Amino acid sequence: MTKQKFIKIYCLSLTIPFLLLVFPLFSIANRETPFIIGLPFSVFWVIFWIVVTFIIVLFLYKIDPDKDEKEVH
Amino acid sequence: MAQWQIAMIMMIGYLVVALFIGVLAGRNQDKSSLEEFTTAKGNLGLFVMWFLMGGAVFSAFSFLGAPGWAFSRGAPALYIITYTAFAILPWYIIGPKIGAIGRKHNIYTVAGFLQLRYSSRVIAMIIGIVALLASIQYLATQMKGMAYIFNIMTEGRIPFWLGALLSYGIVVVYVATGGLRAAAWSDVFQGILMIVISWTVGLTIVNQLHDSVPNMFRNLTQDNPGFLQIGAEGSTMSTMAYTTTILVSTIGFLMWPHLFSKSYATKARTIKKTVLVYPMFALFLIPLLFVGFSAVNVIQSDQIGSPDEILPYLITTVLTLPGWVYGLVGAGALAAAMSTADAITHSASLEFTDGLIRNVKKDLSSKATLLIMRIGVFVIGGLAYFITVFGGQGLIALLLGAYGSIVQFAPGVYGALYSKKITAPAVITGLISGTVVNYYFQLVADAPPLDINPGILGLIVNVGLVVLISAFSQGKEMPMAEEYRKIGS
Description:
The complex is a heterodimer.
Chain A: H1 3-20, H2 41-63
Chain B: H1 3-26, H2 34-39, H3 46-54, H4 60-73, H5 78-87, H6 91-105, H7 110-118, H8 121-153, H9 160-210, H10 213-223, H11 239-253, H12 257-260, H13 268-284, H14 286-295, H15 310-318, H16 323-360, H17 366-390, H18 393-404, H19 410-418, H20 424-444, H21 454-472, H22 481-486
Helix pairs in contact in B: 1-9, 1-16, 3-9, 3-13, 4-14, 4-16, 5-11, 5-13, 6-13, 7-8, 7-16, 8-9, 8-16, 8-17, 8-18, 9-10, 9-14, 9-16, 9-17, 16-17, 18-20, 20-21
Keywords (chain A): Membrane, Transmembrane, Transmembrane helix
Transmembrane segments (chain A): 7-29, 35-61
InterPro entries (chain A): DUF3311
C-alpha cells in the first residue's frame, strides 16, 4: 500500500465515526431511552463510538506501511 | 486534626513532590542547550509523550469545568469527550510531517514554521503576539482553578492570591530550569494522579448520592426530561451550536502552540503511538461528567457561585467525606491545572521569543535566545498572575479574543503542509479577518447567526479569503513551498 492510499483510508475511516457524533447524524442517538448498560442512549452512543474509534486507530496503525516515516527523499 | 488541615498538608505535600520531580527531570541535562530547552532534543519517549499530550486534556477545565457543564447544561457536556477523542487524530498524519520539516530546518515553534514557509516575518510576529495573549488567558483560567481549589479545600484559610502564587510559582521554577523535559515528567505524575482521583472520587460521589450510575440516570431522566437531549425542549444548547462547538474545538486543538510544537519533540513512531491511545484519555473524563449529572436536583444552582464550583462544593458541603478525600481532590485539581500550565508557559515563552523578539532583533545568538526564553517564563508567569489576581474587564476581553483566534491559525498551517499556492498576504489577511469576525460575534454581537460558533464563522471568512487572495497574489518567490509539501508525503 502506498502512503497516499493509507492517508486516504485513515481520513475516511475516522471521519465516519466523527460524523455519527455530530448533527445531523447524531439525531439518531439524541434521546434518553432505551437505557443500555445503565446509560441513557445518547451517553452510551458517544462512549460506544469513541471505543470503536480507538479500535479503528489500532487497526490503522497495524496496516500503516511506514510507521517510522523514514526521511528519504 | 481538622479536615482542612489534613487537606492542606496533602496539597502542600503534593506541591513539594511536583517541584521535586520537575527539577529532578531537568537535572543532568545540558543546561546551556537551546535544543534541550525547546524540544528535549527531540527524544522524548512514548510514556512521557502520552502524558505530555494528555496534560492538555487534564486541565482545570476538565476537572472543574466538565462537572460544571454536566450539572448546568446536561447532554451538551458530551461535547467535551467527543472533541477530546477526535481532535488528536489529524496529528497521526501531520505530526510526523511537521517534525520532519522542523528537524531539517531547526524549527521549534509555530511562528518559525510559518515564517520559513511563507518567507514572512510579519506572520511570525503576529503568531508570537497572539500566542502570548491567548496563553495568558489560558493560564489565567488554570490559575483561577488552582487558587480556587486551595481556597475552598482549606475552608478559606489560604487566600486566593496565595494559592495561585504557591502552585503556579512552582510551575514557573521547574519550567524555567528544566524546560520541556521537566514539564513532561511532571505531567506523567500529575496525569496519573488525576486519572486515579477522578475515577475513585467521581464514582464515590455518584454512589453516595444515587446508589449507582444507572439509578442516577433514571432519576435524572424522570425529573428533567430533555436534559439529556440536545436541542430538545428544556435543553440548554441547539444542535447547530453543539456541532460547531465540537468542530471548532477539534480543529483548534492542534493549533495550540504547546501541542503543535510537540511534533518536534519526538519521533514519528512515538507520535503515532500517542495518537493511538488518546481516545482513551477522553473516556477517563467520564466520571467527571457523572459528578455533574449526579448533582442535578440535589443542589440548586443558586447555592453555588458558578457551575464550576460543583465538584468542590459537593465534597466539602454536601457529602460526608473524610479529610483525606479533600486533600486528594485538591491535589488532583492542582495536578490538572499545573500539568496544563507548565506546557503553556513553556510554549508561550518560545513562541514570543522566536516569533517576535528574534524578528525585531535579528542577530541573537542561541545562548542569548535561551536566556530570553528562561526570563520569558518568569515574565509570562508574572503577567498571568497579576491578571488573574487583579484582572480588568477590558484586558480580559482582549485576552478572550486572542484565545478564540488560535483556531484561525489552521488555514495557514494546513496550507503550508499541503499546498504550494497559498501565499503570505492571503494567510495574514485571513488570520486577521477571521480573528475580527470571531471577536465580533463572541463579544460584541448579541447572538451569532444560526447559532453557529463564532470561531467557525471566523474560519469560514478566513478560508474564503485565503483561497481568494492566494489566487491573486501569486508571483512572489516562495522557495520553501514545494519542499514543505513534499517532505513526509
